[in-house]
Please model this.
Amino acid sequence: MNVTVRVIDGTSGRPAEGVKAAVVNDPAGGPSTCIDGLTDAEGRFTCRPDADLRANSSLYSIELDVDAYFISMGIAAGYKQTAFLARLDRLETDYLFEVFITPFGHATWNVK
Model:
């Protein structure tokens, strides 16, 4: 299973490079595990949760640091972070989430 998040900057209509992204698994009664990094020139961040992580829970939080991204361009965002909870329960499936961000709003959809 691969989890990919693709971020589009709604102010420019281009991929959002350099957005801090995290995929967090937080099983009930267990420690949370986070895989994080920055989106690339295509606005993508991809991770592959390991087997132990996938076995603990199928619920993952996908988190994006929108504030730091817009501040780097001199824009004060209306919110710090956007996050959503996704059920990723098919180990043989790759998941792609598209996220459209602006300083004061966002939209998210699952492509696969």
User: Anything to note?
Assistant: The mean pLDDT is 87. Residues 9 and 101 are 5 Å apart (CA to CA).
